[in-house]
Amino acid sequence: MATRHVYLVRHGAADPFGELTDVGQQQSDLVGQRLAGLPIDVVWHSPLPRAVRSAGIIGTHLPKADVLEAPELIDHVPHVPEQAPPAWAPFFDGYGAEEAEEAERRSSALTARFARPAATETHEVLVTHAYQVAWLVRDALGAPPVRWLGLNCGNTALTVIEYRDGSEPTMLLYNDMGHLPADLRWTGFGAGVRP
């Protein structure tokens, strides 16, 4: 039975203009080194500069893999709840029916393309954004759409999901930062105490 191995990676740390920082470049290099021992077929990336640059760095460690853009991986809100949880209400202020429809269209395209088995055994890296990682994790776990909220991941953290015909997705890793030294972990999160 063919398995689709999906390695989700949030892009490296970026500046306020969306460009990869020196830290983000180091993070991307380290996750690329971690993935180098795997039979990666392709590195898909969001069209945004921080993901494009991260994917390019990761790709230097995967010389047999194509590095290609996938518009479905672009950063966007994947779901607008009808009634936002109180802590998230300010975030969704101003979102209406049009934004909710666009979110559903984009998130449906993301899952239709990547959250399913493939015809042959594949190993694919998806360099994307925190919300898209959260959406695919939520989908793999069969959780309600609103549960993407609060599923965050660090820059270049590794999440691995396997898809096979006839069975539910298998979550192997979530937000794993074992390839990063302590000073490069937890970027992309708010302030707080971290292990």
How are the SSEs placed, and which strands pair?
Elements (H helix, E strand, L loop, with lengths): L2 E8 L11 H14 L6 E4 L3 H11 L6 E4 L27 H18 L7 E7 L1 H12 L16 E7 L5 E7 L19
Parallel strand pairs: 1-4, 2-3, 2-4
Antiparallel strand pairs: 1-5, 5-6
What does the overall shape look like? globular
Largest sheet: 6 strands, mixed
- Percent of residues in helices comes to 25-40%
Tally of helical runs:
4
Q: Which stretches are low in confidence, meaning pLDDT under 50 for 5 or more residues running? A: none
Span from first to last CA? 38 Å
Spatial order of the strands in the main sheet? 3-2-4-1-5-6
Write the element-wise H/E pattern from the N-terminal end onward: EHEHEHEHEE
Structural class label: alpha/beta
Strand tally: 6
The residue-averaged pLDDT reads: 95
Q: If you compute it from the alpha carbons, what radius of gyration comes out, rounded to the nearest whole angstrom? A: 16 Å
Strand content: 15-25%
Describe this structure in words.
The termini are far apart. Helices cover 28% and strands 19% of the residues. The chain has helices at 22-35, 49-59, 97-114, 130-141, and strands spanning 3-10, 42-45, 66-69, 122-128, 158-164, 170-176. By secondary structure, it is α/β, with parallel strands linked by helices. Helix 1 (22-35) packs across helix 2. Helix 2 (49-59) links the parallel strand 2 (42-45) and strand 3 (66-69). It has a six-stranded mixed sheet with strand order 3-2-4-1-5-6. GO terms for molecular function: hydrolase activity.
